[in-house]
Write a structure and sequence with these properties.
By secondary structure, the protein is α+β, with helices and mostly antiparallel strands. It contains 13 helices and 18 strands. The strands form 4 sheets. Strands 15-12-14-13-17-18-16 form a 7-stranded antiparallel beta sheet. The protein has a 5-stranded antiparallel beta sheet with strand order 5-6-10-8-9. Strands 1-2-4-3 form a 4-stranded mixed beta sheet, covered by helices on one side.
Length: 448
């Protein structure tokens, strides 16, 4: 993938002295390390390594004045590719990465938006606390915490946003606000699921849960009869105890035989309970390899090294939510493997579905699975044809795993009255449409 600079493609950005001091621009030796995302090459005019809300406010004013694209990036690897741009300004939050336990007894913690979830897990571990937050330690807090947060303990503890108690943001006009259930509750509703459309989040307060060791089971199945395997695995997940959360990854194997790897986390260490809970999942298909171990939760999310941006060949991804893996749905999911390099199902349900759908902008509270399929750009059309056949069996969309941003994707992510409310709130909080790089909301006058 080409990573050399081509500054002539876009006009040079004139920056005031305070922003120039924190800018990485084309020609800077650091530029290639900050210009891209995990999946998408970018050529921004400037990446601003902000250290305060004041820096962010100045960056927003500059983007408005220069009329260039604006992108906020919390610092992690982001699958959707929407945390960079061409010719505009990227507000990089990675220097805002503090994690603080405010009240050990209640589990209240404050996490800056530029931290990575591996750092958060490590910081909370000495207190016996954790937040269910994705499955990779180098994911940035801000992106996940404003979209949803499907993690390795979701069925027991819900989504990451379900534990949010407050958020701090810089709005389009440069004002700095704190929002919670009592202060600016409309904004707090919108932040939890559609936050990228309303401001640049700088920090959050979460209610963490008491978590120490968990049991992890990594199983490789022969999934040659893929549709039947998926149906059995899905049924087993739905009836499993809430302590069980399972992520299943399918890849094409030799001779067209699919290989399935399940990573299942049991939030506890009782060996008898683990065996009883996981037996139905193990029986979904012939087991080729099986590994069982107990570990402190934070070891599942190592902070690791800097994310390797723009090196992921499977840069086209499709996202959907599934109520149940019925036999017809399983057949269509299986067909995705004809053009997808990877298909993944993440179990939700359980505590995720305890939250009323109207409680926040993320309103998908009836589904049991999140589905993602990824492929290389050359096979995009083939994947889209198969995804179109699957679409009638889907019920919604998780924005962080979708690289398209068309009208149907917007309506799948924010159905019905949710979208109507978001559009109205957008006109109040971002009348300039400055934050339109991530599932952009139309104006009030739109025919939506």
């Amino acid at each position: 993938m080409r990573t050399t600079d081509s500054p002539s493609r876009f006009p040079s950005l004139d920056l005031p002295e305070d922003l120039a001091a924190i800018a990485v621009r084309p020609g800077d030796r650091r530029y290639d390390a900050v210009r891209h995302t995990y999946t998408r090459p970018g050529s921004p005019g400037a990446v601003l390594l902000v250290r305060s809300a004041g820096d962010i406010a100045a960056a927003l004013a500059q983007a408005r004045a220069a009329q260039v694209p604006l992108t906020a990036r919390s610092g992690g690897h982001g699958i959707s590719g929407r945390s960079t741009n061409d010719g505009g300004i990227v507000v990089d939050l990675s220097r805002l990465n503090a994690v603080e336990v405010l009240d050990r007894r209640s589990g209240l913690v404050r996490v800056a938006a530029g931290a990575r979830w591996g750092e958060v897990a490590a910081a909370l571990a000495p207190y016996g606390l954790a937040l269910s937050s994705g499955d990779t330690g180098d994911v940035g807090v801000g992106g996940l915490a404003t979209a949803g947060g499907i993690g390795l303990m979701s069925r027991l503890h819900g989504l990451t946003i379900d534990h949010m108690r407050a958020a701090e943001l810089v709005l389009a006009d440069g004002s700095v606000v704190r929002t919670d259930a009592e202060h600016d509750p409309d904004l707090f509703w919108a932040v939890r699921g559609a936050g990228a459309n309303f401001g640049v989040a700088t920090a959050f307060e979460f209610q963490a849960e008491p978590v120490r060791e968990v049991t992890v089971v990594v199983t490789v199945h022969d999934a040659a009869a893929t549709a039947g395997f998926l149906t059995r695995w899905g049924a087993a997940v739905e009836v499993a105890p809430r302590a069980v959360t399972s992520f299943l990854t399918l890849v094409p194997g030799p001779g067209g035989r699919a290989v399935a790897q399940a990573m299942t986390v049991y939030a506890g260490t009782d060996a008898t309970a683990v065996r009883t809970a996981l037996a139905p999942l193990l029986s979904a298909g012939r087991v080729l390899r099986n590994q069982v171990f107990t570990t402190p939760y934070h070891q599942l999310l190592p902070a690791g090294r800097e994310p390797q941006h723009a090196q992921q060949p499977l840069s086209v991804s499709r996202s959907g939510l599934v109520d149940h893996i019925t036999p017809p749905a399983a057949e269509h999911i299986t067909a995705l493997l004809e053009t997808a390099g990877m298909v993944q199902l993440r179990s939700v349900g359980g505590a995720v579905n305890d939250v009323p759908p109207q409680a926040m902008a993320y309103s998908h509270r009836a589904q049991n699975f999140s589905l993602m399929a990824a492929t290389v750009p050359a096979l995009r059309d083939g994947l889209d044809q198969r995804w179109e056949r699957l679409h009638p069996y889907l019920n919604g969309l998780y924005p962080s795993f979708e690289t398209r941003t068309g009208r149907r994707q917007l309506e799948d992510a924010f159905p019905g009255a949710v979208l109507d409310r978001l559009i109205t709130l957008k006109s109040h909080y971002d009348p300039y449409h400055l934050f339109d790089n991530n599932f952009a909301l139309p104006s009030v006058r739109s025919p939506y």
